[in-house]
Amino acid sequence: MKNNHTANHIPIYLISLTKDSERRELLANRFPLFSSQFILINAVDGRELSARDYYLQILPYFKTHQRILTPSELGTTLSHVKALTTFLESNAEFALIIEDDIIGNDEDIHHLLSLAQQLDKQTLLSGGGLQGVNARYLLGKKTQLQDTYNTANLANPPITRACAYIVSRFVAQSILHHHQHNLTIADDWGIILNGTKIKIYYTDILQHPTDLSTSNIESERQVQEPTLIGKLLGPAGFKQACLKLYREIALPFYKLAGYQKLPIKSNSTDDEVQQ
Predict the structure, then answer these.
(1) Where are the beta strands (DSSP E) in 105-214?
(2) d(Cα 47, Cα 185) in Å, to the nearest integer?
(3) How far apart are CA 158 and CA 155, in angstroms?
(4) Phi–psi pair at 38, nearest 5 degrees
(5) CA distances from 122 to 84, 116, 254 (A)
(6) How many Cβ atoms from other residues are within 10 Å of residue 87's Cβ?
(7) Amino acid 5: pLDDT
(8) What's the CA gap between 255 and 257, in Å, rounded?
(9) In 10 A of CB 167, how many CB atoms?
(10) Under 8 Å between Cβ of 199 and 123
């Protein structure tokens, strides 16, 4: 299972809007040893796309899911596509992708990179960031890797958040292939990797801000949040009700099979920044 690549050969791609210099300064303070190695990916601001570009890129997703991608969701996805494309233009076998609001320290990055040395090419490793997510259906089974879990597909997707993850060239190509045919929310791993044999591992190392009151993505999502009647009677509401029923029925069987709730640490700092 081990590969011959080393942590020194794993590039770290930082997704950040050009204007967000304060966030990058904060990251430099959090990661004084590794920040100089971050390769900046100038993020796409979906709010600045032309109406035509926005419409053409969200139309396939709307046809499939009966829901629009918000401008910030689209920009985030395009930014991750940009990072993965840049990675594939390199000679590296694995890469760490991070967003500029992660919380952690140099030890955390070092630990993530050491785990990457033990991954096979058909594994995506989520490096944490599930703070604030409903954890009831987030289950995993311990792997041979330290504090790392093979996630259950109970939640569909099993996990969300794309603030820190490690991919191989094979996984990056698979993600890009999906987006080329049906652009999807960047962290909707269950949809993006559906139909592949790619495993999703999770380790609770880096953290994500929990106060999303100033988050562009969250504010845009609230605008299109369906009414109570829509939630109960609309197609999306019916689908969610069926999914919840399936999860409740399947939950005890997963636990009997050795799955347990994924560990999610609380934030350890107060200097949180928003996406």
Answers:
(1) 123-128, 139-142, 148-151, 164-168, 199-206
(2) 15
(3) 5
(4) -65, 135
(5) 16, 12, 23
(6) 23
(7) 42
(8) 5
(9) 25
(10) yes
Asked if the peptide bond before residue 157 counts as cis, ω within 30 degrees of 0, the response is yes
Q: What is the rounded distance in angstroms from the CA atom of residue 145 to the CA atom of residue 138?
A: 19
Average pLDDT over residues 27-52: 97
Q: Tokens at residue 18, please? A: 């050009």
Q: Domain spanning 7-261: which CATH class is it, in words? A: alpha beta
* Joined tokens for residue 164: 């820190």
Which tops the pLDDT comparison, 229 or 186? 186
| H or E element, residue 249 | helix 235-256
Tokens linked to 94: 């694995």
Give CA–CA dist 125/171, Å, rounded: 10
- Which tokens hold the place of 55? 């419409």
- pLDDT per position as a tens digit, 53-84: 999 999 999 988 888 899 999 999 999 999 99
Check if the beta carbon of residue 34 is closer than 8 Å to that of residue 106. Answer: yes
- Its pTM stands at 0.85
Domain boundaries, the chain: 7-261
